[in-house]
Design a protein that fits this description.
The protein is mainly alpha-helical. It is about 65% helix and about 0% strand.
Length: about 230
């Protein structure tokens, strides 16, 4: 009998720990906690010679050659491998190639977007190799590497959008627009986010800015018109 009581006490204690952990996760989710824990993101260093994507034209000099080589040998094969049966391609796995590329060009927009898209692809493709690190790791490393670059910030908003965390996505797109207010794509995507949460006045506001800046796609304009918020 004592043994049974002891087992019951241990079981209750373990159940309490589980409930506490679940509660903490829920509270973090509800509060929009964006902290990356050690479990989510291994610390890693960039390559000795890491390059700012914006400052490399890809046309002249040794650095330009290196960037083109990384694209041909790692980024392009990785993006192609993402959609294969097992996530493997030239030079290895999509995840390995992207990790290699982003250690050398941390704010490369093609690689960052591919990391985000691949994160969701592997959820439905069990034969694909997992990411070396969570998308948050690469995105925040890019922001630290080039604080003035708005693209990783916008892409963090895209990542939150893909996770259906619209309020956080709005927050990140607004941060990106603080650095690049004349981004037609940033304004357009922010308008789409507001449309998704049915705040049509805000959606129209950012859509108007996007179209004045020359954004070419009429999708948001058509959506707003159907809801009674036409754009002249």
């Amino acid at each position: 009998m004592r043994r049974i009581h002891r087992i019951m006490r241990i079981s209750i204690y373990l159940l309490g720990l589980m409930l506490f952990a679940i509660s903490a996760i829920c509270e973090a989710e509800q509060s929009g906690n964006e902290t990356i824990t050690a479990m989510q993101c291994n610390y890693y260093e960039l390559a000795k010679y890491a390059f700012d994507y914006r400052n490399i034209t890809g046309h002249n000099g040794h650095n330009g050659w290196l960037i083109r080589d990384i694209f041909r040998a790692h980024i392009k094969p990785a993006i192609e491998a993402m959609y294969t049966r097992n996530g493997q391609g030239i030079g290895g796995s999509a995840s390995g190639n992207l990790d290699y590329a982003l250690k050398r060009i941390p704010n490369d927009p093609r690689s960052l977007k591919a990391i985000i898209d691949y994160y969701f692809i592997i959820k439905t493709k069990p034969r694909h190799s997992h990411l070396v690190r969570a998308p948050e790791c690469y995105l925040k490393k890019a922001m630290m590497f080039v604080p003035g670059d708005p693209v990783p910030i916008f892409l963090y908003g895209y990542y939150m959008f893909k996770k259906n965390r619209y309020k956080l996505a709005i927050k990140w797109y607004k941060r990106g627009l603080e650095k690049e207010p004349e981004s037609s794509e940033g304004n357009y995507n922010l308008g789409l986010l507001y449309f998704n949460i049915k705040q049509y006045n805000y959606a129209k506001h950012y859509a108007e800015i996007a179209y004045k800046l020359g954004f070419p796609l009429p999708g948001l304009k058509n959506k707003l018109k159907m809801k009674g918020y036409p754009i002249d």
